[in-house]
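Re: L6N33NVT structure - here you go.
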Amino acid sequence: MNLPAGHPFVIAPRVGVLLVNLGTPDAPTPKAVRRYLKEFLSDPRVVEIPKLVWWPILNGLILNVRPKQSAHAYAQVWGPDGSPLATITKAQAEGLQTQLGNGIMVRWAMRYGNPAMGPVLAEMKAAGCERILVAPLYPQYSAATTATAIDELGRQLTAMRWQPSTRTLPPYYDDPLHVAALRDDLARQLRALPFVPEVLLLSFHGMPERTLHMGDPYHCQCRKTARLVGEALAADFPGLRIETSFQSRFGRAKWLEPYTEDTLTALAKGGVTRLAIAAPGFSADCLETREELAIRGREVFEEAGGLEFAALDCLNTSDAGMAMLEALVRRELGGWI
Ligand SMILES: C=CC1=C(C)c2cc3[nH]c(cc4nc(cc5[nH]c(cc1n2)c(C)c5CCC(=O)O)C(CCC(=O)O)=C4C)c(C)c3C=C
Ligand SMILES: [Fe+2]
Ligand SMILES: [Fe+2]
C-alpha cells in the first residue's frame, strides 16, 4: 500500500501541547486591525446580541471607526517582532518546549487571527500527535475566552476523520501553583521599584455585567484571584493595600465594576500618590496592559494628582511563570507521559 507522505501510520505516536491565547492583528494598521476585529467581534460567544441587531452596528459603525483608533494604540506597543501578545505567547511555547523536551511537541495558536488553531492542530496531527492537551492561557474561565477556544477545538475535530484524543487545561486562577507564581513574580517586581507603592491595584479585563447574572463564573474567579494574591503578599508587604477593578469596557452596556479608570481617579483624588498596577487575568502582556494600563492608566492617575506609578508585567516568560506553566501542563498530561 502506498501511503501519502506524512501519513500518521509512518510516524511514532506523540503527545502534543497546544497553548492558545486570544489573538491579535498581524500589523498595527487599520486594515489588519479591521480584519482581526471583524473575526473577534463576530463571535457570538464574545458579543451576545442577536445577529440581526448586532451585524448592522458592527459592520456599519464599529468596523468603520474602531480599527483606526485601535491601530494607533497597537502602534504604541508594537515591538520589533510584532504584537506583544504574539511575541510572548510564542516565547512561552518555545520555553515550554525546552522544559518538556523533544518527546512532547509544543505549539501555540490564537483563537482569532494568526497562527489560527486549525492549521496548527493539523500540523500537530501530521507530526503524529495522537494525544493533544489544549491549554487556553486564561487563568479565569469566561465564555468569551475559554469557551470559545474550546468551541473552536471542537469545530476542528468535527472536520477530522481520525481525531487525536484531546484534553483541555482547566481554569487555574485559584490553583496554589498560580497564586504562588503571582506572589513570587509580583514581589520580585515590587521590590525592584524605585518607590514604595501604597496601593497595588489588580485590574482584570471586564465583561458585560449581565454575563455574571447569566452564570458566567468569570467575575467570581477574578475576585477570588485578587483575594488569594492579596493574602499571599500580605506577609512580605504588610502595609500594601490591595484594590481590584475591571478594565477595557467596550460598548454602552454596563460592565463589571468598579472600572479601572474610575478607580485610578478615585484613589489619586483620595490622597494615594504612589501606585502599582498589575493584571493577573492576563497570562501575557498585550495591548490591554501595555497601552491601556501602562500608558493611559498612568495619564489618568497623574492627572488626578498621583505622583508615582508603575505597571507591573504579567507572568509572561518569567521564571515563576514558566515553572508554573510546566507544572500545570505536566499534571494535566498525567497518564499520557
Ligand atoms: C483576559 C480575558 C479577556 C476577557 C474576559 C475579554 C473579554 C472581552 N473583550 C472584548 C473586546 C475586546 N478585547 C480586546 C482585546 C483583548 N482582550 C483580551 C482578553 C480578554 N477579553 C486580550 C488579551 C486582548 C488584547 C489583544 C491584543 O492584541 O493585545 C479588543 C481589541 C482591542 C481594541 O480594539 O480595544 C476588543 C475589542 C469583549 C467585547 C469582551 C467580552 C464580552
Ligand atoms: Fe478583550
Ligand atoms: Fe482596551
